[in-house]
Amino acid sequence: CSALTAYLHLRQVFVPTESGQGSLTGVDSTLFSLSLSLSLSLPVRTVVSNLPFEDLKKREQPNRRYEGNAIKTNKYRLWSFIPMNLFEQFHRMANIYFVGLAILNFVPVVNAFQPEVALIPICVILALTTVKDGWEDFRRYQTDQQLNNTPCFIFNRKQMCFMERRWKDVRVGDFVRVLSNEIIPADILLLHTSDPDGVCHMETANLDGETSLKQRKVVPGFSTLVRALSVVCENPNNNLNLFKGYVERPDKRRTGFGIDSLLLRGCTVRNTDDAAGIVVYAGHETKSMLNNSGPRYKRSKIERKMNTDVLFCVVLLFFMCLIGALGTVQGTSLSIIQDALHADNGNYIPSVLAGFYMFFTMIILLQVMIPVSLYVSIELVKMVQIFFITQDVELYDEELDSRVQCRALNITEDLGQIQYIFSDKTGTLTENKMVFRRCSIMGTEYCHEENGAVGEFVSPYFLKQETVVVPDRKLMLEVDRQMASIQTGPYLDFFLALAICNTVLVSSVKTLADPFSTDEDESDGFHSSNVSDATGQKGISSERKVKSSPSGSEEVCYEAHSPDEAALIHAAKAYGFSMVERTPHYVTVKLPNEALLKFEVLDILTFDSTRRRMSIIVRHPHTKEITMYTKGADSAVMERLGNVFSVPVKTQKDLDMYARNGLRTLCFAKKVEVLEQEFRAWSAVRQEALSAMDEKEERLMETANFIESNFNLLGATGIEDRLQESVPETILALRRAGMQLWVLTGDKPETAINIAYSCKLLEHEDLFLYTNAVSVICQSVCKMRLEDTLGELRRSTLAPGADHQFRGYNSAFTGPLMEPSIGLVIDGPTLSMAMSDELVEQFVELCKHCRAVLCCRVTPLQKSAVVKLIRQKLRVMTLAVGDGANDVNMIQAADVGIGVSGQEGMQAVMASDFAITRFKHLQRLLLVHGHWCYSRLANMVIYFFYKNVAYVNLLFWYQFFCGFSATAMIDYWLMIFFNLFFTSAPPIMFGIMDKEVSDSTLLSLPELYKRGQHSEGYRRSTFWIAILDAFYQSLVCFFIPYWTYNGSDIGIFAFGTPMNTVSLFTIILHLAIEIKSWVSLLSASSLHKTMTKTSLSLLINI
Amino acid sequence: MMASSYSAKEEDGHHSGSAGLGGDAIRTRKPDNTAFKQQRLPAWQPILTAGTVLPAFFIIGLIFIPIGIGLYVTSKNIKEFEIDYTGTDMSSPCFNCSQSFSWNSTTPCRCVLFFSLDQPFESNVFMYYGLSNFYQNHRRYVKSRDDSQLNGDERSLKEPSKECEPYRTNENKPIAPCGAIANSMFNDTLDLFYIDPNGTKTQIPLMKKGIAWWTDKHVKFRNPGGSNPNLTAVFIETAKPVNWRKPVYELDTDPENNGFINEDFIVWMRTAALPTFRKLYRIIQKKNDMTPTLPRGNYSLEVTYNYPVRSFEGRKRMILSAISWMGGKNPFLGIAYITVGSICFFLGVVLLFIHHKYGNRNNSSDIPN
């Protein structure tokens, strides 16, 4: 039925275009863009409907220049796969090096091996990578195909109805219809919905992971549009929250629209039977595709170090070849050979030239010095490491049914080297599941003790119960009294504000039966006791209602944007004020006496971070007077109060108390009796601001500030944000592991400090430096304070134990070092001062001495600035962990970014390298997996260098006994397969499986983590020791056989093959010594290799 | 990449939907709790303690020292005699021969060296010639041969491999055997005489067969022309190597030891690994009776001096050696074993001492496992 109406509607819209075809074709699209570029001064795109042009050829289509909706994310095509892939691979230096050497081998004067054989290793490496890339690309191709062939409905003019087509057939300018629960195929400008209010809901979970519904509106006034339309909008960009444009009618009238009319590709339509619109962006130009930049490539610390060590190897190789070349120039007395070989036509090669040639021959001979399989092996090992991390059952979250996600593929070992952790507070340290704890109405404080008690015991179902608010008895009576007598009053206003001043959506989904019988019993008990106390009849009835609603079948379901709003609306519901319906123009509230109040919503001033408050302007159904309810941060509301009585003072006192207890505070205010005319005038200004193209935000702000003044304070609420499970333990362990923990939060200092205390970030005996903007007025003062503190610090560290009052000791962590444990608390404005150029050194110096730093009231940009500052100034490995969109900057700035998938959507997770669900998982991720990955990879890399140097040096030593002629005493094949087959599997298994210390030990002794922090697994010295060790071992492996066979009748290969075997045994044995734990698989692989090797060398020996 | 993450998401969405509807049939993403995936595979974690390391040292010492002694004694008992006949000294009988040398002189230069053996050689005696400072392992030298030619391939006989340059063709005829190795083949003749105490010279019979590896003689080296006994005809189209006095088909009169399968030639073609080397020349077979193979007494070595070494300051030697289970005389291995064994033993003692004296101090701080 709705489909029919949609069809009729569209027909109404599009039929006239049939007759108007001539006029439309005459309209030159360039004319549009010309006129637009004048008005917008921005590059724009003009989209006209495709319908009139359906019969035209492809190149005459007006929208032909815009991309189609078919996507292609695979990099290669079938025919160009091999060359393209090879081209990609040659971006890696090592590959160029080895191919260069293989080619060099074809030059006759310098060749060392049979050139064809020398090509094998590099070909194998390239082929392996090609196969891997090809497989990945094929997978991408398959998913693309699947998406491109998803069915959708496109309007067809001939049939005059929507035809089922594929996603790939969608073009810009097409009219597309999306049914409920279908995925939107392209970015569509919403022109019609089945909803009478022209509203469409979409779920953006595919885009940002947020499951809350977003409301989209039909372009205003479109339904009356009967002539052809052309849509003018911005060029494609990746901003998901910004979209501007207008629909222009032939009579040059323009209707503006914004992001709230755009349906985004990849989202799902919900709660709306069908929606239709014109495609403005398709395929790769859609906002979701532009937003997806694929996995980020970060280079880990070990890899950076390794690259310099590869360079060292090159230098070493260079010297070895130089020695070889000089040896040739020097000319050992080989005249017979010289006579024999170079006498052709009497042309002796001059010895310098011979040396020059020899240099290159030696490079070819000793090329194995640079481990060709190192990079491939590392990639392989990291892949398996990531597999193991994601498979860890300890990091699995039952409630969310999610594992740890590894989004960055190549920085696993960085997890083992973290020195500084920057953490967000809300949602990361805390649950971000808000519980309504206290409220203060008209200066009277009501503490909801029972709500606090619920949090005391941790039940597995606890998370689902934060919606249950147990009303305070005293307050309940007060409300009932006012309800009964006068029907108005501050108490009622307060709860009305709670119920309607929000952006919560109501959906009347039938919920599952409440399985939490224990809690119901408890609330029953409470209610029964309450009933006996209750005096008024209404009190009892209202309580019954509260009680029945959670288990009742007519349960309303709230979809709130923030957990705070959810907590508040549930609190209001507990007192009987439940919002039952919200449409764009009306909001209906059910009062405790079951009466329904239907407010007309005149305007909503949405929340923004600069105003820090939101307001709703409604018309009261009975009195018809215009009322504005506002809620906001205490400072944002308090300063705009109209009359200052004792109420605000008392409330402020309560608010301070809430903050001390770590509660999040909100103030509620009301502005009554806005005059009708006044409101009209304001509304007109507001509308103008809304449709403005330039400076829209500023003008909106102005209008909002204008009306949001002269409030009457109603009260304040305190919402508790509980700490996550085992946060203090995790912080303790991380700190014992030598990590500095910083908390960066947008909250106010009091709340932040309280959370910091409760999660053991700060100890009560710690010295505590607190700087805030009030005490620090200007930069010079700030500078003075910093210097003072630093001076004191230096004195105290110079004379330990001199000033006990000054310092708090924490022997548990710092042990005999007696470092003072200082906690620094700094707020946003001061932080920006401290981070100015002249103070930054002192600030960093001070931070180095602090055990914990707490930054309050910082902006997202400051968060990332702090991370960058510490990372650059102190040259440390940083980790940032956060859950919200405001942490994205910080997560991207840090070496390792960790997203907590929590309540605030998935933006942080999308930006992160690793995503976890609980803060406590950080402990295992860093201490166990980080340590393992680091030590495994470090050992493996070192071993790779070692084995190649040890092997190649055999050849080098031999040069001293073959007249520097680059003879290889080992068979070519053995030598070439050394890296590929004989010594590849054991170190890879080593890198995957070895376990230095068991996970339980690592968790119980976090101090073991310090090894990775100080890079003790892989230092420059470790590298050189390994190289020296390799030199020593190769000397032994060479000279024992040498002295054994010297002067005997041994042949070249009879001499070299045992040497090769001995050397391989030594190399494998060395690995055996390095291996800390023998897993059967590991030993099997090394055994197997040795066996193959031995049998092969025996064969060749014959 | 977009697409793949996209689809992953879709899966998620789909899953959550089905979880809501399905109830029981919830497919969780919980990782399998298997030993492999949880990295709990049974593993043996050896921890080095004094209790395991010290015995290891002693065992290595106790095994290596006897082996070393055994090797050393065996090597010591192997009789070996070596005589240098290069003739660089004025006093040397071969001085004249070494000075007046040309590749193409037709009159062979002979010289005789006298020596005496203090002890008799009991078993089979291997007679070697030794060369010093001869880099038979030089890369270009090693490559300068054509294995398929040596294997009797007719085509390679006519068209030798390019590797043989500049000893590939001579006067437009292919050289057989081609290459620098063959060209520089050792061509001194050594004869051994026993001088009775009464002054009579008896020539000692030298066996020239059985000195090459079986695989070389029967697999790698073959005369061209199949079983054609007339080697002269087979090699008619070829030239002899530049430095050779005789063509390859005149190396020996015995058809089983002529041409490419001449054992002296095969031995030479197996290039030595090191610049100082010896190559097996002849075998002196033990007689059937009880007399020693080479009784003690005076001997003379008659050398037909053809091979020049003065140009590269080389030395030529004749070596007589007996053979034991460990091969030729070589004291090094024995010494090496004894040294390593002793070092281990000594270290074991030192560590035992240290352990005994200081070991009990920090038992309490063992790593918990």
UniProtKB/TrEMBL annotation, chain A:
Residues annotated as catalytic: D424 (4-aspartylphosphate intermediate)
Domain of life (superkingdom): Eukaryota
Domain P-type ATPase C-terminal residues, every copy: 909-1081
Annotated keywords: ATP-binding, Endoplasmic reticulum, Magnesium, Membrane, Metal-binding, Nucleotide-binding, Translocase, Transmembrane, Transmembrane helix
PROSITE patterns (alphabetical): ATPASE_E1_E2
Compartments where located: Endomembrane system; Endoplasmic reticulum membrane; Membrane
Catalysed conversion reaction: a beta-D-glucosyl-(1<->1')-N-acylsphing-4-enine(out) + ATP + H2O = a beta-D-glucosyl-(1<->1')-N-acylsphing-4-enine(in) + ADP + phosphate + H(+); ATP + H2O + phospholipidSide 1 = ADP + phosphate + phospholipidSide 2
InterPro entries, sorted: ATPase_P-typ_cyto_dom_N, ATPase_P-typ_P_site, ATPase_P-typ_TM_dom_sf, ATPase_P-typ_transduc_dom_A_sf, HAD-like_sf, HAD_sf, P-type_ATPase_IV, P-type_ATPase_N
Cellular component GO terms held in the UniProt record: endoplasmic reticulum membrane; phospholipid-translocating ATPase complex; plasma membrane
CDD domains, alphabetized: P-type_ATPase_APLT_Dnf-like
Enzyme Commission numbers on file: 7.6.2.1
Coiled-coil positions: none
UniProt protein name: Phospholipid-transporting ATPase
Pfam families assigned: Cation_ATPase, PhoLip_ATPase_C, PhoLip_ATPase_N
Location of region: Disordered: 519-556
Single GO MF descriptor: glycosylceramide flippase activity
Protein source organism: Sinocyclocheilus anshuiensis
Binding site for ATP: D424, K425, T426, E565, F607, K631, R664, T745, G746, D747, R857, K863, N886, D887
Cofactor names: Mg(2+)
Bilayer topology term: Multi-pass membrane protein
GO biological process: phospholipid translocation
Enzyme kind, highest EC tier: translocase
Family: Belongs to the cation transport ATPase (P-type) (TC 3.A.3) family. Type IV subfamily.
Biased composition (Polar residues): 526-540
UniProtKB/TrEMBL annotation, chain B:
Disordered: annotated segments: 1-25, 145-169
Protein name per UniProt: Cell cycle control protein
GO cellular component term, pick one: transport vesicle membrane
Keywords from the named record: Cell membrane, Cytoplasmic vesicle, Disulfide bond, Glycoprotein, Golgi apparatus, Lipid transport, Membrane, Transmembrane, Transmembrane helix, Transport
Stretches of the chain forming a coiled coil according to its record: none
Native species: Sinocyclocheilus anshuiensis
Record membrane topology: Multi-pass membrane protein
Pfam family of the protein (one): CDC50
InterPro entries: CDC50/LEM3_fam (IPR005045)
